[in-house]
Backbone:
């Protein structure tokens, strides 16, 4: 009997599993690294055990320390969540050897599917269609493009698209380094790359009594860096093609699970085309990040079913069928327009309005939130950049898409840059709404183009910020008198804000008739406080809320959010980096230096590689020139804006 569960994970998935455990009356145990000491999952657990250190290799990937923590805290079962040790057969075996219940598939099933190379061979033998494995050493021009993939793990790590033979060697080496860092296994392989397809996956559950369920399918075609961004159930491709495609997919999922004697929850992933053909990609022997959409449309609690199966209970009743439509958006701390660069910082404000369920099923026309962060949470460089998952469940796909876009647009997320605007634009893009979007969506529709013109005007946001800042400075005294009011005409007050690299000067004053802007009638000011501003433009009133942190002002309105930086009147020259300096775009570790001082480089040439948030990031030369300085070395930890190299431009 399971009475106490340790979750060998962190963040959102740890909180999700704890929620079901609490509903079941089970005690909960968290583990945490030093970087996560103040995280919500630690506070919510009944007990928590520290894993000294910050890097995954010395904390969440230390199976021996996790098992020791479970025994010390009195847990009798371990749930691995996803990532880290979730698909580590040796860890699963060690959990059983320690007398603990493993809430997951058998070690033999994990081993059978852990290597994507071996998994493909098994599936081919079982009659499931697969993409041919290619040896990197023998690939020809005719076989391009190809996809380099890590044999172990997932989440898009250790993947590279190769379109030219001269780029193959470097892609294989880079993917192997990333795979070794993320999964402890550098093995990679190649397969044919389909420029545009559909990522379809089948959720399976299997008990120890011979029952295998396929709980419908999901489509996860919108991806960046081969990592999913938006997931939904049922799959629009399957609904659009119809016929027997769904039956064939679900049957293939059951056959894949049966072929390895599977036990518990797992996902069989396929690549499909618009003609109804599909090929096996891999099987994830764990709970998926996107499992909430299946829970919404099938009315199940997959974590609860995992607990039942681990306790030896049988799956009973008919196989759950799908009703309605659910769409999940992953909210990441990243800058999509800047090559999806991960962001770090403190989440000052985190608020998603209209949430009807947290970490559990929601009724139709509801919004579910599974979040790993709260106000004050710190997003560091050590772990994945996902902040939360926001899920809409509705009777129709279009209703779910529009409800999710509205919830995200109204969300207030301050302190870190996120992909929120991109998610909103993606959900309302005509190709997505038509259900025809494939895996090339973000190649065909780059983030900058998708979000261009979709948000509020920065000039309006700057005016709102200036009025709110003026109200804040006025304070509680003389509340009936507007800031800057005079009995006689005076000059305009000036405040300057920056939206990205674009500086906006706001000039305004208050006269007898209210707000005055130079050269234009402008909007009328209805009300202004430090926290909110109401403007009337041509008889239409709109309300904006204002948040602040450091030197930033965040303006949230009906059209979205603009983050502004206050521009100081004077700057300290000593605080500026030297001319030609290339600085670290994020905190991370230098894993490779590809040039030397004195080298002449071309524009776009790789100079250094940083590892941050379990991904490898390349720093390129912005223009041709000569490397004058290299103040960093391999293995060095750097903070954001640390100078990495100084480049003297040609000419």
Residues:
């Amino acid at each position: 009997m399971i009475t106490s569960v340790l979750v060998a994970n962190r963040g959102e998935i740890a909180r999700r599993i704890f929620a079901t455990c609490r509903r079941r009356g089970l005690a909960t145990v968290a583990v945490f690294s030093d970087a996560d000491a103040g995280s919500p999952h630690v506070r919510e657990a009944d007990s928590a055990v520290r894993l000294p250190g910050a890097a995954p290799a010395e904390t969440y990937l230390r199976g021996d320390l996790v098992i020791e923590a479970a025994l010390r805290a009195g847990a009798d079962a371990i749930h691995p969540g996803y990532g880290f040790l979730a698909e580590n057969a040796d860890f699963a075996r060690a959990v059983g050897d320690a007398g603990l219940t493993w809430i997951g598939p058998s070690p033999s099933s994990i081993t059978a599917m852990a290597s994507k190379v071996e998994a493909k061979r098994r599936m081919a033998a079982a009659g499931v269609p697969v993409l041919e494995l290619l040896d990197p050493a023998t690939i020809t021009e005719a076989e391009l493009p190809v996809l380099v993939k890590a044999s172990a793990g997932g989440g898009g790590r250790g993947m590279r698209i190769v379109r030219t033979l001269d780029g193959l060697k470097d892609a294989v080496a880079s993917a192997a380094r990333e795979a070794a860092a993320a999964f402890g296994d550098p093995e990679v392989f190649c397969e044919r790359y389909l420029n545009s397809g559909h990522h379809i996956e089948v959720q399976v559950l299997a008990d120890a009594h011979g029952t295998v369920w396929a709980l419908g399918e999901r489509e996860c075609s919108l991806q960046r860096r081969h990592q999913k961004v938006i997931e939904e159930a049922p799959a629009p491709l399957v609904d659009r093609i119809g016929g027997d495609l769904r039956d064939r997919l679900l049957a293939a999922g059951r056959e894949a699970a049966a072929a390895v004697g599977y036990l518990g929850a797992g996902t069989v992933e396929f690549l499909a085309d618009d003609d109804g053909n599909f090929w096996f990609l891999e099987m994830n022997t764990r709970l998926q990040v996107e499992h909430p959409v299946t829970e919404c449309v099938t009315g199940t609690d997959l974590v609860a079913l995992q607990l039942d199966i681990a306790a030896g209970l049988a799956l009973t009743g008919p196989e759950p069928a799908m009703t309605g439509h659910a769409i999940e958006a992953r909210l990441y701390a990243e800058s999509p327009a800047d090559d999806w660069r991960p962001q770090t910082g403190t989440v000052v404000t985190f608020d998603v309005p209209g949430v009807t369920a947290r970490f559990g099923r929601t009724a139709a026309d509801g919004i579910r939130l599974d979040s790993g962060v709260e106000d004050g949470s710190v997003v560091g460089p050590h772990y994945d950049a996902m902040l939360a998952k926001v899920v809409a469940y509705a009777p129709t796909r279009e209703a779910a898409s529009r409800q999710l876009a509205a919830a995200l647009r109204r969300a207030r997320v301050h302190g870190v840059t996120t992909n929120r605007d991109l998610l909103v634009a993606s959900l309302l893009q005509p190709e997505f709404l038509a259900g025809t979007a494939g895996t090339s969506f973000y190649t065909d529709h780059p983030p900058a183009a998708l979000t261009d013109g979709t948000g509020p005007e920065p000039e309006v946001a700057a005016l709102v910020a200036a009025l709110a800042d003026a109200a804040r400075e006025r304070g509680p005294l003389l509340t009936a008198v507007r800031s800057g009011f005079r009995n006689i005409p005076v000059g305009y007050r000036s405040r300057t804000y920056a939206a990205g690299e674009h500086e906006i000067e706001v000039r305004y004053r208050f006269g007898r008739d209210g707000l005055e802007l130079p050269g234009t009638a402008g909007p009328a000011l209805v009300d202004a406080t430090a926290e909110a501003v109401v403007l009337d433009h041509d008889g239409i009133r709109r309300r904006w809320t204002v948040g602040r942190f450091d030197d930033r002002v965040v303006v949230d309105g009906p059209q979205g959010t603009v983050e502004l930086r206050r521009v100081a009147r004077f700057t300290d020259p000593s605080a500026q980096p030297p001319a030609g300096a290339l600085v670290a775009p994020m905190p991370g570790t230098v894993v490779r230096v590809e040039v030397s001082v004195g080298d002449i480089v071309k524009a776009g040439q790789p100079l250094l590689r940083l590892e941050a948030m379990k991904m490898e990031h390349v720093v390129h030369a912005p223009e041709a020139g000569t490397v004058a300085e290299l103040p960093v070395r391999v293995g060095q930890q750097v903070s954001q804006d640390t100078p990495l190299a100084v480049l003297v431009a040609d000419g």
About this structure: The first helix runs from residue 11 to 24. The two ends are 75 Å apart (CA to CA).
